[in-house]
Amino acid sequence: MALTEQKVVDRIEVLETGHLNVQWATYVVDDDSGDRVSGPAYSRQAFAPGADIEDQDQEIKDIAAVAWTDDRIEAEEAAHALRYPHSER
To answer: Residue 47 burial (CB < 10 Å; 0-12/13-18/19+)?
Structure first.
């Protein structure tokens, strides 16, 4: 019995600020039958407006394209500059 780990986007939340909270579900799948042997195991990650999401799933990119308006990206950059005045982004 060969097993494969399958990670899928389970939930995407868009906050008022435009931040994306993404939850993934990871399953172990039997390659022969296609049955899920274990899982889900959950993991989460948050993305601020304007974050580099080039290596993320297309679904995340599509939602960010709508949620991340120029105003939200500018607001995030301003907030970042206030929190971390000596850092470059």
So the answer is: buried
Whether the pLDDT of residue 1 is over 80: the answer is: no
Helix (H) or strand (E) segment spanning residue 58 = helix 58-67
Q: 28 forms bridges with which residues in the sheet? A: 5, 38
Q: What is the C-alpha to C-alpha distance for residues 19 and 63, in angstroms, rounded to an integer?
A: 11
Amino acid at 56: Q
Q: How far is CA 7 from CA 1, 23, 58, 70, 73, in A?
A: 19, 10, 14, 31, 29
- The whole-model pTM stands at 0.83
Tokens (6 digits) for 77: 């950059």
* pLDDT tens digits, one per residue of 13-65: 999 999 999 999 999 999 999 899 998 999 999 999 999 999 999 999 999 99
Distance CA 67, CA 76 (A): 13
